[in-house]
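haha ok so turns out i had the wrong file open the whole time. this is the CORRECT one, sorry everyone. sequence first:
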Amino acid sequence: MIIAIDGPAASGKGTLGKRLAAHYGLAHLDTGLLYRAVAYELVQTGKPLTDEAGAVIAARKLDVDQLDDEKLRGAPMGEAASKVAAFPGVRAALVQLQRAFAARPEGAVLDGRDIGTVICPDADVKLFVTASAEERARRRHTELAGRGDPISYDEVLADIRARDDRDINRPASPLRQAGDATLLDTTKMDIDAAFRAAVAIVDAAA
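then structure:
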């Protein structure tokens, strides 16, 4: 069973992806980490985030089993990832990597921006997880504050809106809800309620 989860930044799709994967005994891939890893490689080697050729080379070298989750977290890397993710060459370089992950015999759970529309258009279940920009900013700000990041709520909200604009309007694989995806608006849900709703959707579709 392949479960494709798409949605904007801080909508809760990553947390849902992890919990659904554990619930159904499937592997999970947060595809946003791939783009963060590409951006991280550019930063570490002193290359600008505008270097598409360098970003493509970094993307081609990625190993999904070697992603250091902790060093890729944080607002600056999220902003950087959003920029390199707009490069068509980077997205093309990562397509087969993501599809190979999804093709494992037992299936998988993948979350990102174009899973149901580009990476796994034939997924067994597709979810489009969203929430208001203000609620997503509140969640992200709380998360970052818990890590000691001094960024303000207003800065997080501005970042969320900027990332939404880039994700929705980029020419390569823009963020959009697949025609056969089920919308899950988590604005007024805590994670447990969102998880129960997601499980109900998966069970009904599987």
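The chain has a mean pLDDT of 94.
again sry for the mixup
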